[in-house]
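Hmm, what's this shape?
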Amino acid sequence: MSWIGYASLSAVLAGLVAILGKIGVRGVDSTLATTVRAAIMFGALLAVALARGAMHDLWTVDRRAMLYIALSGLAGAGSWLCYFRALQVGDALRVAPVDRLSGAVTLVLAAFVLGERAPVSAWVGTAVMVIGAVIVARS
């Protein structure tokens, strides 16, 4: 499958996360809900890694790469905590588009931190996404 196929599948699954998460956090502490979600994800990911034989590479990952993977994990944990709390106190139809502005943040960081060059169309598309998220959040 190409990157667009994986990205499209990710978008569909992320949409399910919003709906299932919104239903799940009713009457449940959002931190507890996030912790349960993380535990389920850990089990599923470990099963996939073991099935693919990827775990034997764990001890060969260099320290710098592992540091950035760990920092990514911490950022992800913070994101999940905020996301589930937002779902608990807000409408899923407003929370999800604002959360997906992570794409806009990624574009800016990729350009300035990683030195990636985005075409003008990517900047325009991102601006449209931001405007759309603002419109949905305010409606």
The radius of gyration is 17 Å. The chain has a mean pLDDT of 93.
